[in-house]
Amino acid sequence: MGVIVDDTAWVKSLVFDKKISHSASRPTGVENAKIVVIQFQILTPKTDIEQSIVISDYTQMDRILKEERNYILGMIRKIKGIGCNVLLIQKSIHRDEMTDLSLNCLTQAKILVIKDVECVEIEFITKTLNCLPVANIEHFRAKKLGFAY
To answer: Residue 5: inside a domain, yes or no?
Structure first.
């Protein structure tokens, strides 16, 4: 059966050629998307100097892992706090935008993630979505959100 012109609608949209970063329970689509483009990593900070940490028992290891999880959860709370449900992550020269822990925490927060967005695509994406890229977690504001319906 054919479709007539009256049955069609013009939809302003943007198509990504990147895969959604997901686990088994990760959302695969979002309606009324509130989108943020970030240019930083969702990781615990690394030191500038070469050093080693000696862990002598499991309680120390558990404490380190708990602190890392709390740090990442704090970042994700800021992201979720402005209403973001889609996160576009600019490709990093460091190659580590996030860890499995970060992805799992974003999954629990029901935030769809597309990572490895090329630097040259950022300007086009932000103009199309009418949003501003965020270079630091401290600069997260609702006015930087883009929207897609």
So the answer is: no
